[in-house]
Design a protein that fits this description.
CATH topology of the largest domain: Glutaredoxin
Oligomer: single chain
Number of domains: 2
Largest sheet: 5 strands, mixed
Number of strands: 7
CATH class of the largest domain: Alpha Beta
Strand order of the largest sheet: 5-4-3-6-7
Order of helices and strands: HEEHEHEHEHEEH
Distance between the termini: 63 Å
CATH architecture of the largest domain: 3-Layer(aba) Sandwich
Radius of gyration: 20 Å
């Protein structure tokens, strides 16, 4: 009987591993529901990346919908996402606000200078304290915030043309924003 215990333990581990593989194949593991969907975006007061003497608050952005894109120069996946933002942001029909997360401002400025700057404006949160209130897990993440400051959509991970077409564009249309044809 004692010889069967290691075999039983091994079979249990193999079963759990197989179940995990099956689960990942049949479920969207990037879909992390946000408790903030349908709720007001958290208040914030952050410095602009290119002019830290100027600050941006939630109230400054009210009145029209916008996308808030969390990025950082140290973020590898942000580098993958950036060409998509450069190519498609102007086709979306609303401002893209950059949110530089836990980054040195000089590094972020150099990163945007080298890759191009798709953002209407960029705020910086070196400590990451404000990002906690948004429920940010890491970069990149993108929030769709309506004209009243309500979070309507959140995407964790890089935006891709498929995500923009299949997930973001329908949310934009619900807000009355008409992206360019083909998006």
């Amino acid at each position: 009987m004692n010889r069967l215990l290691p075999l039983a333990g091994f079979l249990l581990l193999v079963t759990l591993f197989g179940y995990g593989l099956w689960w990942n194949a049949h479920h969207d593991v990037t879909a992390v529901p946000s408790p903030l969907i349908g709720k007001p975006a958290p208040a914030f007061d952050l410095p602009r990346l290119h002019d830290p003497a100027l600050r941006v608050t939630k109230a400054d952005l009210l009145g029209k919908p916008y996308l808030l894109n969390v990025f950082a120069s140290w973020c590898f996946a942000c580098g993958d996402e950036h060409p998509v933002l450069m190519a498609e942001v102007h086709e979306l029909g609303l401002p893209l606000i950059g949110y530089d997360y836990k980054d040195k401002p000089a590094d972020a400025r150099a990163w945007l200078t080298a890759r191009g700057d798709p953002y209407t404006l960029v705020v910086t949160d070196q400590s990451g304290d404000t990002a906690i209130n948004f429920g940010v897990y890491g970069a990149p993440e993108t929030f769709l915030i309506d004209a009243d400051g309500i979070i309507r959509y959140k995407h964790i991970g890089p935006l891709t043309p498929g995500v923009i077409r299949d997930q973001l564009a329908p949310q934009l249309r619900k807000l009355g924003v008409q992206p360019a044809p083909g998006i």
